[in-house]
Amino acid sequence: MPARAILTLETELERLAGAPVTLERPSRAEHGDYATNVALRLAPQNGKPPRELAEQLAREAAQLPAVERAEVAGPGFLNLFLTPGWYAEALGEILEAGERYGGAFVETAERVQVEMVSANPTGPLTVGSARNAAYGDAVARLLEFAGNEVEREYYFNDVGRQIELFRESVEARRRGEEPPAEGYTGEYVAEIAAEPGDPVDRMLEEIKRELEAFRIRFDSWVLQRDIEQGIPDVVPLLDTYEAEGTLWARTSEHGDDKDRPLVRSSDGSYLYYAGDVAYVRNKFERGFDRLIYVLGADHHGYVARLKAAAAMLGYDPERLEVLIYQLVHIVEGGRAKQASKRRGDVVFLGELVDKIGMDAARWYLVSRGHDQAIDIDVDLARERSEKNPVYYVQYAHARIAGILRNAGDAEASAEGIELAPEERDLIKRLVEFPDVVREATERRAPHALPNYTIRLADDFHRFYHRHRVLESDQQAFRLGLVRATKAVLARSLDLIGVEAPDRM
RNA sequence: GGCCCCGUAGCUCAGUGGAUAGAGCGGCAGACUUCGAAUCUGCGUGCGGAGGUUCGACUCCUCCCGGGGCCA
Prior knowledge:
Strand order of the largest sheet: 6-5-4-11-12
Distance between the termini: 34 Å
Low-confidence stretches: none
Shape: globular
Oligomer: single chain
Helix content: 40-55%
Number of strands: 15
Largest sheet: 5 strands, parallel
Number of helices: 19
């Protein structure tokens, strides 16, 4: 959903052109404030040269109140230069909306569940889980801001081989014995052993603390044990057959590349997929319109089988969405390490936060595309953190807060008399925000926000250096401009779970 | 062998059909008696390779090469 000032202009141009028009920002200033390629797209069907169509459109567009002048360029682009009145309208819209600007754009709100992290409570959260958390939470925040109702869920194993192994490892430690073969040996095992109580419960408490500190609030914590109770009810609902002493689900009929085993006939024990299906059913029965799973790239095989589960249960598979992010690799001494919680040679979320800080950690983990694998060199983390762009963006916010403190209750306005290039650029950047948010939400790609925020901070810093806000001949307008900038910076940072400080 | 992700500047990465492909880091040279210098200004012969689609391709299609992952 573009800003209203853009939508209005597009609608007027559509009326003139008789075809859909989308405006884009040219990279070069001499190509105008906005441009459209509508003449290029229309030329083939009209049998006229694109430039001729563009010339006619330019003459008509120049009559619009928002348009100062319209020019034809290149193969047939229409370049528009806008009036101060248009800028005032655009800025007024932002000031009116404040931090709500750019949000609440969905046509029909959905009840969405985002299941994320869901790491086994056999150790503290790793940086791999932290990426899941940072990415999943940013997607959830975007969906909320868009106008949906979102719940965050954490699913954890409280039964199974790894859990038993973890308990045995801690108990062996308490008795002063060696851990079992393939058991857990990390330092945190000793710390848990030194305290009373069930190791799994303690670990789970620790994980909850870590996630809260990481600014993620979960609405529900679901136990594997509880979900598995639904298995006997769900198996009869599926398309199954018996072969090789096993009951199979015919998932290959629903887009999976092969069928999945459900029940071992010899002892009636349930296999892993049976639990997956029971969980899918459980989620749908709780009334969600959309289920989102956030999984690492090593789980990409789950996509087809989870969608097959939804289909077999009679739900539209489109309502079940699996977001896959690429893995985090640990690099130490220039060499990649094989991360293993069991052996303890892994980097934990807590260590990353200790080295680079909470804001830099959240920023860093979400600022790369989720399709991009991340390397973390922990030795370099602190050094790099001092140069993290998050501080550049936060500084812009703090600077504005300082100006507004000094301004007291001075009046702010959207009306500028004469607009400098830096003021036009800053307003156009703010006008981009609703599009950035919508696209980031629809593509489940929150990394667009850090990138946008850097450009916004950049435009602000440049403006700041060339123009005084207070005690200038345009104080009210410039106060309006920086106030709008502050609101959009704060919202952008909030969407990725980073704080927007008033002082640094 | 099948499937998924990636190859863009020295390094880390943006850019899912538009004009002369961008930012951060690193490097060099400048700017504070003025609202916060954690800032600003200037300096850049790069899209792995080959075909194809299009008025127009980093972007879409096919094949090849290279890196990561899952399954067999």
